[in-house]
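3.2 Worked example (two chains)
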Amino acid sequence: MSHYHFRLVDHDRALSVTGRPVDDRDQAFALAKRLAIDIAESRQEFLGKGYAVAVLNDAGTEIHRESIDSAEKSG
C-alpha cells in the first residue's frame, strides 16, 4: 500500500499536511477530491482565493492538485 500526502495549499505555500495510506494513485486523487469538497462545504473562507488540495507521492513530488473552488461548484 502506498502512502500519499495531502497538502492544503494557497498557490505554492503549504498550510497543512497530512498523510494517508491508500491502495493506489487513483484512490489518492479521489481522496483529494473528497477533501476539497469537505473544505469547500465547511470552510467557506477558503472559497474564491485559489486554495487547493495537493497530492504528493512518497518521494514528496506533487502529482495532482484539486481546486477547492472547482470542488465547491461540482460537489
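3.2.1 Second chain
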Amino acid sequence: MSDVTIPLDPTRLQNLQDLEIPILVPGRLPSDLTRIQTTTERGPQGPAFRVVFHTSPQRWVALQGCSGGVGDVMIGDAAEDFDTEQAGPGRVEFYDPGSQEPVDFRSHWLHPQTEGAFYSLSGQGLTESEVLEVASSLRWL
C-alpha cells in the first residue's frame, strides 16, 4: 500500500473541480491500482462524479460522490467500521461471492458536511485489510 498523489490530467482535474462539490479520493492505494477513469455528470439530482482506480476488471476500487438520490446499501455478509481524518467515520459491507451485489464491498454513504454531497467507496478484488486501509485514507482532493 502506498500514498497516492492522484495523477489526473489537467482536463479531468478541471472537470471534477467544476462540479462545485468537494471531491473525496483515497490517500492510499495498493500500488498495482495505477489506471484511473473518471466520469462527471450534472443530473436532475445535482452534480455527481466517479473515480475508478484499477489494474483489471477483477481488481478495482471506485469512489463516487453525488448531491442526492442515494439509495440504501445492502447489508453484507460481514461489515467493518473505519474512520477517516477528513471525512469522519464510516462502515463498509463485504459481500460473499454469489451475492446479489455486483461488487465485493461497498461503504455506507458518507455525509461529512451537514449539507452537501454524499460519498461511497466500492470495488472488487481487494483484501479486507486493503479495503479498510483505502477507506481510512479518504481525503479531499
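3.3 Remarks
The mean pLDDT is 89.
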